[in-house]
UniProtKB/TrEMBL annotation:
Listed EC numbers: 6.3.2.9
Keywords noted in UniProt: ATP-binding, Cell cycle, Cell division, Cell shape, Cell wall biogenesis/degradation, Cytoplasm, Ligase, Nucleotide-binding, Peptidoglycan synthesis
Ranges where the Mur ligase C-terminal domain occurs: 333-454
Species in which this protein is naturally found: Paenibacillus solani
Catalytic activity: UDP-N-acetyl-alpha-D-muramoyl-L-alanine + D-glutamate + ATP = UDP-N-acetyl-alpha-D-muramoyl-L-alanyl-D-glutamate + ADP + phosphate + H(+)
Name of the protein: UDP-N-acetylmuramoylalanine--D-glutamate ligase
Keyword Amino-acid biosynthesis annotated: no
Gene that encodes the chain: murD
Function of the molecule: Cell wall formation. Catalyzes the addition of glutamate to the nucleotide precursor UDP-N-acetylmuramoyl-L-alanine (UMA).
Family matches, as InterPro entries: Mur-like_cat_sf, Mur_ligase_C, Mur_ligase_C_dom_sf, Mur_ligase_cen, MurD
UniProt-listed Pfam families: Mur_ligase_C, Mur_ligase_M, MurD-like_N
Boundaries of every Mur ligase central domain copy: 117-311
SUPFAM superfamilies in UniProt: MurCD N-terminal domain, MurD-like peptide ligases, catalytic domain, MurD-like peptide ligases, peptide-binding domain
Family: Belongs to the MurCDEF family.
Enzyme class: ligase
Length: 477
């Protein structure tokens, strides 16, 4: 752990409690800063406040005081989910006070090299997979950030012999200044979080900040099949290690033979394909036969390729990757098999909070699908779902704010069985009703898939809660 002498005797405001806010407040207090933590929730909703106050940290709950931010404040550290439009953040920006997220503080604290992983879809699966690959190769990974323990807590415990493997959201990356990962990976870009970012330009720019401070000594792992990722190449100073499902690469991780870029070979499966790494000297090293990868779905082949490119960049030889790729069984709420009931398989993909994630899930199955979808309306039109609905989805059950919008898309896709679920007494009852309706439409050999294409916050506090309720409803059929 590095000493954070730059923060000594500085007035710092931490906006938002939660786990990361509590931990970063402790770190800054230990560094000698004068810390005030502010949360708009009422005191009875902030059980963490007493713990911080016992350490001598000031905590203000129940709103944002007008005098919270002033010219004497040196730094504002905000919870990533708090929008930049809230008054304390706006005032800090007006006074040219730096506004950062916990990631920036953790970076200055951490002595271990960092691997930063971001993207619209697949972050958690890929981050977890990288941790498994490094561990199976005898390295010492610490998985943290947007999953697991708060990054500043993990950074305080890390040594120079560890690898810090960090899942990063666009919210976190928007608030960095000097954060510089040794290895940075951008998995993909899809239309999401537009309510927070105000448009795709800010969203892409926030993701791209992952590479901003890298130098030629660092490595950038890029999805070569994603045009937005590829367009960032001129702005990246690090050595680029690409991965591609659709092209053979002179250097990087790719598939032999490649998949068709337009998805026209989806029904052919993965038989006969091999994942390989071609090094800078022109030698090709076999990693694994694609059919042996432990997770279903072509998009998980992409996640596996990204994880391999990262692991190889961290020093793992390609021949050490196959076992961990074979035995990895994924992460909860991400195409998670729940149960089989009366010949029908049920899968929980609650983490699919945008259209692209749902599209990728739909293309993972050959069986007829009854899809449960819908949730928070963030302004998307969901038109990109039409091709994956056609020929794969036999019925769709819709709930939440977007159910009417998704119903129109389903009509355009030619679906006949379109069920809109009325709101029950609570969100859990509504989703349970949706599961029951989907089960009544399913026949032996079908798959019932929860893949909402929307965030959960119109009805549920998180996608995890949504997924847990779905699983409970399935087990109670």
């Amino acid at each position: 752990m590095r000493q954070l002498d730059d923060y000594r005797d500085k007035n710092i405001v931490v906006l938002g409690l939660a786990r990361s806010g509590v931990q970063v407040a402790k770190v800054l207090h230990q560094a000698g800063a004068s810390v005030i933590v502010n949360d708009r929730k009422e005191r009875e909703q902030c059980p963490e406040a007493s713990e911080l106050e016992a350490l001598g940290i000031s905590v203000i709950c129940g709103g944002h005081p007008d005098d919270l931010i002033h010219s004497g404040v040196a730094l504002l550290v905000k919870n990533p989910g708090i929008p930049y439009s809230v008054p304390p953040v706006q005032k800090a920006l007006e006074l040219n006070i730096p506004v950062v997220t916990e990631v920036e503080i953790a970076y200055h604290l951490c002595v271990a090299p960092m691997i930063g992983i971001t993207g619209s879809n697949g972050k958690t699966t890929t981050t977890t997979w990288v941790g498994n690959l490094l561990e199976s190769a005898g390295l010492s990974p610490i998985v943290a950030g947007n999953i697991g323990i708060p990054l500043s807590e993990a950074a305080a415990e890390a040594t120079e012999n560890d690898w810090m493997v960090v899942e990063l959201s666009s919210f976190q990356l928007k608030g960095i200044e000097k954060f510089r990962p040794r290895i940075a990976c951008l998995l993909n870009i899809a239309e999401t979080h537009l309510d927070y970012h105000g448009g795709m330009d800010d969203y892409i720019a926030s993701k791209a900040k992952l590479f901003a401070n890298q130098t030629a000594e660092d490595i950038a792992v890029l999805n070569w099949d994603d045009p937005v990722c590829r367009n960032l190449v001129p702005y990246i100073k690090a050595r680029i290690v690409p991965f591609s499902m659709n092209e053979s690469l002179r250097e990087g991780v790719h598939i032999i033979p490649p998949y068709a870029a337009d998805g026209s070979d989806l029904d052919e499966g993965d038989q006969g394909r091999t994942m390989v790494y071609t090094d800078g000297d022109g030698f090709t090293h076999e990693i694994i036969r694609v059919e042996n990868i432990g997770l279903p779905g072509r998009f998980n082949v992409g996640n596996a390729m990204a994880a391999c490119a990262i692991a190889i960049s961290a020093g793992v030889t390609p021949d050490k990757l196959e076992e961990a790729l074979t035995h990895f069984r994924g992460v909860e709420h991400r195409l998670e098999f729940v149960s089989e009931f009366q010949g029908v398989s049920y899968y929980n993909n609650s983490k699919a909070t945008n259209s692209k994630a749902t599209h990728m899930a739909l293309t993972s199955f050959k069986e007829p699908i009854i899809l449960i979808a819908g949730g928070l309306d963030r302004g998307s039109d969901y038109e990109e779902l039409i091709p994956s609905l056609q020929g794969r989805v036999k019925a769709i059950v819709l709930l939440g704010e977007t159910k009417e919008k998704l119903a129109k898309v389903a009509v355009k896709a030619g679906l006949k069985d379109i069920i809109l679920v009325d709101n029950e007494k609570d969100a859990a009852a509504t989703l349970t009703s949706a599961v029951q309706k989907a089960a009544s439409l399913a026949e032996r050999g079908d798959t019932v898939l929860l893949s909402p294409a929307c965030a959960s916050w119109d009805m549920f506090p998180s996608y995890e809660v949504r997924g847990d309720i779905f699983k409970e409803a399935v087990h109670n059929l």
